[in-house]
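Make up an example, fold above all:
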Amino acid sequence: MQARRRQCLHSQLCICSSGPLSELVIFLVIKTTNWNPYIISATACVCRWFADLAKRVLWKEFCLSRGPKMVSDLAAGQHGTVDGGWNSLGKLMFYCAGCHGVMAAPSRPLFDHFVRKTRFSKTSGKSFLVPQCRTDILYLSDPCEHLDENGEDDIGLFRGVFKAFGSSKTRKMLIEHDIYLEQNEICPYCFTKGWNMLKANMIPKSACRRVGAYEDEVEFFICVNGHLHGKCSLLHLSGSEAESEEE
């Protein structure tokens, strides 16, 4: 990393006002924490100087340390960046956004939380693409299980990210079919508007099979930066099925 020195962008009352800070020093300190996302988040809240450093450098290092193959693929041909920024991708990798707004209806909202470990898969992502768009690359997480309001049904929340969404067939298809952006559903990772894929009739049957959900019980949104978030009603396993799963 090339050392850079910047004046704080905040105010004279900021902790940084005593003089210019070295990005390399902050970089090395955060590196000793193994790019801890909680510490990076706290660092970004200090002031605009730290927020800028976290957005450009620290979140990028976090992403590369947690999913090097996926992140390298997403950044390929993107001039060292990713759609929506490194901070948005970092958040998507370790944060389940819960279920709120349009997607929560008619049930109660499901709370958001941090996730210690998540697996993202291109194979799973391909199952969420209609046949005309199967050449697109989508990394999809395993469902994060939540209980609904009656405490009986399992709701699966999942998230994902497209590679080069701006040039994807999925985006092209949405635009060609005049699918409007949802006004009441905002991406929890980059805070932009997105498309309701259920309304667009672009959720294939293979999506239900991939996440183990009831048929026609999968719903998800894709934002303009290619971030995906959605929910599904997970199938109940019988006693014998559960035992075989454990074996």
